TrEMBL record:
Region annotation (Disordered) ranges: 41-60
Keyword Disulfide bond: yes
Protein name: Cx9C motif-containing protein 4, mitochondrial
Cell location: Mitochondrion intermembrane space
Alphabetically ordered keywords of this record: Disulfide bond, Mitochondrion
Amino acid sequence: MPPEACQIQNCLLSNNYQQDKCEAVIANLYKCCAQFYRRDGDDARTDGKLKDLNIPDASK
């Protein structure tokens, strides 16, 4: 699991699952995904075991 996903889980747990209190860490996940697509292209996939992982496209 990407570190950003762990940060989201931790934030939600510590804030009684109130998403509005975790918007910053959620935004970080989208920034990470956007960087991935800029670097590797719109059809990019992760390699190895996570090859079929669907990463959200923040530009859409």
